[in-house]
Amino acid sequence: MRCSICDKVINGMGNNASPFKRDDCCDECNESIVLKLRLFLSGNVKKQLLVITPYNDIIFWGFDVDDVPLKDLQNLVDGYIELYPIENEHYYFIVDEEGFVKDKAENELAYELFGIQVLGNLVLCPKENFS
Q1: pTM score over 0.90
Q2: What are the tens digits of pLDDT across the range 8-32?
Q3: In sequence order, what are the beta bridge partners of 24?
Q4: Cβ atoms of 76 and 70 closer than 8 Å
Q5: Which of 23, 48, 59, 87 is 20–30 Å from 93 (CA)?
Q6: Are 22 and 34 in contact (CB under 8 A)?
Q7: Backbone region of residue 14 per phi and psi (left: phi > 0; alpha: psi in -120 to 50; beta: other values)
Q8: What b/e sequence results for 3-19 when a residue is b if at least 16 CB atoms lie within 10 Å of its CB, and e otherwise?
Q9: Average pLDDT of 110-116?
Q10: Burial (CB count within 10 angstroms: exposed 0-12, middle 13-18, buried 19+), residue 27
């Protein structure tokens, strides 16, 4: 059996890859992608952003203030921020507005998870922490 995320051979029983995929995944992908995504989307993670890179990394980024500073968001996307035009009840999707001009890598995880085409990092920001 192969991992539905990275295509490596799964040793053992595998893990449920939902919400990322409907099939099984390996222990490494479960730990580095699936569990982090589930935790964040549960809404139980406070004062943290989720950064999804084009290199299949999912990173929690914590902050101590009520509102996320603009310069921090710009650093996370490596450029000027733009809200991706997608409606979500709980999160804003933040990207680099010049991702195409800068020839950034395509973010396949963003496409797999949310069906959106993003170049460079995608930052999910809880609406309650954005003003």
Answers
A1: no
A2: 999 889 999 988 788 899 999 999 8
A3: 16
A4: no
A5: 23
A6: no
A7: left
A8: bbbeeeebeeebbebee
A9: 89
A10: middle
d(Cα 12, Cα 80) in Å, to the nearest integer? 44
State how far the Cα of 108 lies from the Cα of 56, in Å rounded to an integer.
Answer: 8
Q: Name the CA dihedral angle for 58, 91, 117, 50, rounded to a multiple of 10 degrees.
A: -10
- What are the Cα distances from residue 60, in Å, to 1, 7, 8, 77? 30, 24, 25, 14
Residue 49 dihedral angles phi and psi, to the nearest 5° = -105, 160
Q: Indicate the length of the chain as a whole number.
A: 131
Token readout for 118 is: 């993003």
In terms of Cβ atoms closer than 10 Å to its own Cβ (0-12, 13-18, 19+), residue 124 is buried
- According to the 3-state scheme, what is the secondary structure of the chain? CECCCCCCECCCCCEECCCCCCCEECHHHHHHHHHHHHHHHCCCCCCEEEEECCCCCEEEEECCCCCCCHHHHHHHHCCCEEECCCCCCCEEEEEECCCCCCCCCECHHHHHHHCCCCECCEEEEEHHHCC
